[in-house]
Amino acid sequence: MPAAGVVLAVALGGRNAQRTALVAMPVGLCLALAVAADIWQTRTPLTYHVGGWLPPLGIALRADGLSAIMTVTTAVVICAIGLFARQGFTVPAGTADARAPTVFWTLLMGVWAGLNAVWFGGDLFTLYVALELLTFGAVPLVSLDGRAETLAAALRYLLFALLGSVLYLLGAALFYGAYGTLDIALLSAAVRAEPAVWVAVALMTVGLIAKTALFPLHLWLPPAHAGAPAAASALLSALVVKGSFVLIVRIWFDAIPNLLNHAAAQTLGALGAMAIVFGSVLALRQARLKLMIAYSTIAQIGYLFFLFPLASTPAAVATGTAETWAGIAWTGGVLQLVSHAVAKAAMFMAAGLIAEALGHDRIAGLAGIGRALPKTVFAFGLAGMSLMGLPPSGGFVAKAMLLVAAVAENQWWWAIVILAGGLLAAGYVFRVLTPALTAADKPLTLQTEVSNGRQGVVLALAICALLLGLVPLRPSLLLEVGRHVPSVALAQ
Amino acid sequence: MSGATLYGLCSAALVGLGLFGAIVHPQPLRKLLAFNLLGGGVFLQFGVIARRGAAAGMGGDPVPQAMVITGIVVAFSATALAVALLLRLYEVSGSATLSTETPMSSDGKGGGR
Fold this sequence. Notes:
By secondary structure, chain A is mainly alpha-helical. Chain A contains 22 helices and two strands.
């Protein structure tokens, strides 16, 4: 586990410029892989007590299967984003320094450090600090180009995020007041169903939902993600919103595993379902490519919240085979987390390349781009496959697992939404691909030359999303590491 | 009514006021002030918890106090960031309001490039 600490240190240390960042990325990737390999081999979660202090006074960092997978995903996506952004954010030759590149690389590392802290944080207050680090890294990324619209989008994002984190902090205060500890493992042993816990959890969940941009609190996301530069929107959409989602999962499944009751799980699932329908329909109506992708993020986030009703439910207990189906839903949900991260990053970067080449990103004006940038459009299509859930993509396996679990647990209403969401996703992806693959009326003049290397990075990431489809359709052993919790939850 | 209870009620009132302000006021600056009010309520709550959990002859439990300091630093830097964004927005666009146009309008305002 010290390795995880080093991941943090490396990510934090890479402060100054592109060069440091480019050195830090492969090192961080190797360390992430090392942590994951260690967990895979030993099949036990790693724990590291910072400074040797034991909880409840000290701070524990924990790495279980979920954090291992998320760390590796983060490292892979960030490396791809870094390679992609090398061209857009270089300090121009001849000048010593330029504002945008320095800020971008620093924030990229800051966001990475924040994400790693979120994946590994073992107590609610560390997680709060990690969340704030993430927010402060992400908000300036939105307004990197300094136009009025992006500044307004960043401000709106910041206000939502601040409200979210202060509600989370209030919830943490109530937890501390009730039990005298914020360590997740200690809390899970101590919590009882009582008013203070319900209030605390409700406050924290609402706060985190605002940060995750789940349906009723999603208004900040589209302008923020669509206005940011392509590399930054890939980062925000693929990873940053996942940070606060994982926190919700940690609270419900790890901190208060015995209290996830039917009503709460169904409510979260229903919000997810509304997000899928609402986000997809709005994505279908967008005239701009990046806004469309941003709304599709809202829809895909909705799928993640099916984890709550499906991965731990009283209904699953009733059918007897509860543990298997809950395990399948759990794997499906996490796979959706990973495959959406990879696919959405590829999609945003492809859109960025298209916009750069054409000088605009109106969907109606895409004709002929398939001929001009074949690799990019191919990558967009592959990423789109994952979003729709066509085999053999990661999105297919994820959605199939959720679907199977929903049917097996007699919760068919989620199955309908999953299928409808897939159809709607197909609608908005083909709305882009159809004009992109038709021939242009007049020869297309590209504004800038797009290098093969950048197209290659995007394509590689999209192929990663496809390869995730080779993950076997069963509960993953890696994810079970440190996760005795669902079985405990089901036993009650 | 003990002091801790009184302060607890005060913090609840502050949180309520702050939340109300942050939701109701359209101007970003007022939202920001409301956020600070809300934050103040939360920090006071930590203070109450510290007082209530006092043990071993100390005046208060030190852990929540450590958390409050972190929280205050975070809230301070968040406020600074928000004010900086607001000022820059005012410089660039000449008004410091968040446009009320719904982000779902598809005319592409604020869209990508």
